[in-house]
């Protein structure tokens, strides 16, 4: 199962719960990139810019999709890449969604996220306007997370994909 959705929606939290319930491994392409590059994502953005990060991310996603069988969380912007969207067509993809007020509560829209560093609420809205249709395009199922606990979100994702627990 592949999880997509905006920063702070709960991909890591819910992804770990889902992996546990399905009895499979959990992997996260942001973590893969940090491990491979030995620096933070914010540092990659500052040192080399977003385009360079996207190129690294594209390779990380391809390799995780081919090398990992369990639950995989993608970085929030991974779906911007057309080839990545093509690869996702063959996967079970859950789009975890939330509204902007929930985003503020979840993340504090803090500085650890380089794309939200300045005027985060406005940035978040603009990112979602540009991306919502791409998340929907790749999704096998859309699972709203507003007002739900991580356990409830995990349960809804399993039901949406009609997956049985291990
Ligand atoms: N359903 C939920 N209800 C309330 N809070 C949640 C829920 N899911 C996650 N959170 C909280 O929201 C924050 C962001 O969650 P998480 O790190 O799992 O999101 P993410 O999508 O992996 O974000 P990132 O973009 O940083 O990878 C965490 O503090 C987490 O505890
Ligand atoms: O939404 C985005 O563009 C991003 C989301 C994060 O997961 C990281 O991949 C990075 O901060 C960029
Ligand atoms: Mg995460």
Descriptive key words:
8 helices, binds adenosine-5'-triphosphate, ATP binding, binds magnesium ion, five-stranded parallel β-sheet, alpha/beta, binds (3R,4S,5R)-3,4,5-trihydroxycyclohex-1-ENE-1-carboxylic acid, Rossmann fold, 166 residues, 56% helix
CATH superfamily annotation? P-loop containing nucleotide triphosphate hydrolases
CATH class equals Alpha Beta
Major sheet details? 5 strands, parallel
Strand content range: 5-15%
Number of strands: 5
Oligomeric description of these chains: single chain
- Structural class by SSE content: alpha/beta
Number of helices: 8
CATH architecture: 3-Layer(aba) Sandwich
Write down the CATH topology.
Answer: Rossmann fold
User: Which small-molecule ligands are present, each listed once?
Assistant: adenosine-5'-triphosphate, (3R,4S,5R)-3,4,5-trihydroxycyclohex-1-ENE-1-carboxylic acid, magnesium ion
Q: What gyration radius follows from the Cα positions, in whole Å?
A: 15 Å
Question: Between the first and last Cα atoms, what is the distance in angstroms?
Answer: 14 Å
- The average pLDDT value, as a whole number, equals 92
Strand order of the largest sheet: 2-3-1-4-5
Secondary structure: helix percent:
55-70%
> What is the general shape?
globular
User: What is the H/E order?
Assistant: EHEHHHEHEHHEH
Instruction: Write down the domain tally.
Output: 1
- Unreliable segments of 5+ consecutive residues: none
